[in-house]
Amino acid sequence: MTKAKIPTRLVRKIATYIISHYLPQEKDYKLGIYFVDQTEMIRLNKRFFNRKYATDVIAAPLETTSNLPVVLLGEVFICMDTALRQAREYRHSYSAEISLLVVHGILHLLGFDDLKPRARKKMRQEERKILTAMGIIE
């Protein structure tokens, strides 16, 4: 795995922001965010989607019973190797790329989709809105 540092404070701040702005506050919400290497991401992509390549982020929603006091949203897996490569490719910081991937993954857990052009456009708008509101991008 890459030696890049995981910006854990930033990741927590993003998750807290999204949960507090997008979900009803009468429940507690939990989610897992995991940083993996390319080999593990290939394994996860094969397991979840039957694809044999690494992707930048995978979101795996969890089904929970609505009467529980804690809602388990799911898990987000981020490939650090891909995040580093994409940060260089798109000419922005590693932190900005990780931020985008965290937002993207959590939005998937909340039901956003990017498979069709209209849905992808809406998801990109939400990503930009969140990252701008948090002062991560202008």
CA radius of gyration is: 15 Å
Q: At the fourth CATH level, what is the homologous superfamily?
A: Metalloproteases ("zincins"), catalytic domain
CATH topology: Collagenase (Catalytic Domain)
Order of helices and strands: HEHEEHHH
Average per-residue pLDDT, rounded, comes to 92
CATH class: Alpha Beta
Roughly how many Å apart are the termini? 31 Å
User: How many strands appear in the DSSP assignment?
Assistant: 3
* Unreliable residue runs: none
What is the strand arrangement across the widest sheet? 1-3-2
The percent of residues in helical segments reads: 40-55%
What is the 3D form?
globular
Major beta-sheet overview: 3 strands, mixed
The fraction of residues in strands falls at: 15-25%
* Number of helices in the DSSP assignment: 5
Structural class: alpha+beta
What does this structure look like?
The chain contains 5 helices and 3 strands. The chain is α+β, with helices and mostly antiparallel strands and 138 residues long. The protein has one domain: 3-Layer(aba) Sandwich (Collagenase (Catalytic Domain)), CATH 3.40.390. The chain has a 3-stranded mixed sheet with strand order 1-3-2.
Primary descriptors:
single chain, 138 residues, alpha+beta, Collagenase (Catalytic Domain), three-stranded mixed sheet, 5 helices, 3 strands, 51% helix, 17% strand
Helix/strand layout:
Layout: H1 8-22, E1 28-36, H2 38-49, E2 57-61, E3 70-79, H3 80-90, H4 94-109, H5 117-133
Parallel strand pairs: 1-3
Antiparallel strand pairs: 2-3
Helix pairs in contact: 1-4, 3-4, 4-5
